Fold this sequence. Notes:
Number of strands: 2
Strand content: under 5%
Radius of gyration: 38 Å
Mean pLDDT: 77
Strand order of the largest sheet: 1-2
Distance between the termini: 82 Å
Amino acid sequence: MKKDETEIKENVLNVFIENKKIFFIIVGIWSVFTIIVITLGKVPYVKLGNMGVFGDSFNVLTSLFTGLAFAGVIVSVILQTTELKDARVEFRRQAKALEMQQLDNKFFQMLNELNNLIGRLKDESGNGITGHAVFEKLFNSLSVEFVENGKEEFQKKFEYFNNYNDKTFKYYFINLYQIINYIDKNVQTRPNVTLEEEEDAKKLAKEYINIIRAQQTKIQLKLLFLNGIGVIEFCGDNGDRYKKLIEKYALFEHIRYQDLLSGKTVYKSNGRVTNPETELKNELHKKVIDALLIQYEKEAFGNNSNLIAAWENRKSLLLENSEGEQVT
Length: 328
């Protein structure tokens, strides 16, 4: 407050300093006018009866000083307006700082709860698997469903799998979605902001999402890849919201195409290949992954050249097959 009062005093003083020539001119005019009236002797000021006439001769200067008084009021209003404007700016800055602090606290509270949730995970088959190991079990189980049923049955099997594992798979990815959605709505898509604030919001939202993405293991990202497509029909009209958020924040920027493929490949000293059954499962699973891959927009992979190349290759093959069918 003292700082603000000092600034106001300095502003008023600056007004006088900047306009000191005007004040000196006014005082000079008044002095010259008085000297001229007295020295010319036109006003008999010595006689008491003519003092009123003498006073009336200063009416011009009275009007002048009245104008100056009005100008002073204007200056005062300007200074008060400036003060109020500065106060509003400061209030807005403090409100924004408080809002961001609350947002920051809420985000890390939600993130901490998500991490605690992982610690509480237990495989629903009762085999003693807990924590992050549950995700490995879930992915292997879901991969088997794909291999046995093919891409045509993906949606049906996913819905069954999602409901059956509602305390692990479904529960975790619902909570993950809530955090990402919270950041998107409360940071990046706020109304009535300037372009500069909008750019700052985008950067901040990206920083938050990067923190979330950095805490996802490879298995969790692989499950998210399947979940992003699987919940589209499962969640009704707004089912693609999860997928759009994945694309918007490039959540698959740090996972390779090879990581999405499952199955164990046996290696020999003379090179690759070995188990026909494993190779067949890999190929079947690869078809499912390829079918899901091209359902995402390329933005989902960020600057991941490995996944982008795989995506473009599958898109190209799809286009060639489509053109071939039309020719046929």
